[in-house]
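Practice problem: predict the structure.
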Amino acid sequence: MAPKRPKGAGAFPKAVVTPAPDRPDSAQLYAALDLGTNSCRMLIAQPKGSQFHVVDSFSKSVQLGSGLEASGRMSRASIARTVQALRICRSKLEKHAVGRMRLVATEACRRAENGPDFIRRVRHDAGLELEIIEPEEEARLAVVSCAPLVSTNTEQLLVVDIGGGSTELVWIDLCSVPRAERPRAIMRLHAGFHNTDSPFPTAKVVDWISVPLGVATLKDQFDDVEDDGARFALMSWFFEENLSEFSPYASEQARDGFQIIGTSGTVTTVAASHLGLKRYDRNKVDGLRMTSDQIDAVIRNYLTLGPAGRRADPRIGRDRHALIMSGAAILQALMRIWPTDRLSVADRGLREGLLYAQMSADGVLEDGPF
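Answer:
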């Protein structure tokens, strides 16, 4: 006689039932949208300890600044692509019922003659209120986003944000800040580069500059140069010429105690190439340290590959191959002026800075180590 089947034998075992994740409290959700010359990117996050947990994200190449260098205006096609992307962002914001947000636009909207018309169209067609921020705030937020990567041994810090339409550089003196406090002193810069009201030791901003040359605008300026190597050399030289008013430009900097943090698609792509990643991995790239020699080796390899080789290289990616050499020209110029054994790669930027600034202002981040 066959054994009797136990009662409930076909039931799904309770031990392996996976409960649905708790829906984040919308009152604790923050959003940051960065509309740049090339990309539209957004993060939705909630505070978690001294940092934040990403709940949702969006990133799309919209090429808003395409043709801007020649015409001074954003094209109809660029605007249509961007509005479509912003509608997706709005749907995500509504889906999560986000309580706090900042939605900002940068260089393309600052420079375009039809920038104000574009902002009005976004309000009407996408239902979003975009805010065009000034270069100083863009630079400040990029610096804040990099606070967790600042070494406690760093005395002189240069933060570089290579964007599509502009490049921001900020030089910071941390000598008077206790070592353990240096990352948090960078975070406090969200209140301003020259905030004198803080009762805590403050990081001193020696100088900052916003150069109106990014990967797209620099490429457009030299599109008529056919030779790949000559075009790269001219771009690097031209960018260096535009740094002459940056006060630390001519000062020789010892490598000890000096750190550069680079935040941009260019820097993360160079890092991915250095690591030989055929599939991008943020965990391996963000926070990676590279020497000037390692960066130079990657750039020389890009030049050896030529346009066709770069287009086919999985480490670069098809969405970046057209802009990687203008970004590399900017990076090479910086390494030529300030060679370092500590360029920290930051896969973070304006969006993260916007989130940190909002959360810090609301007092929802724990005052602990990063």
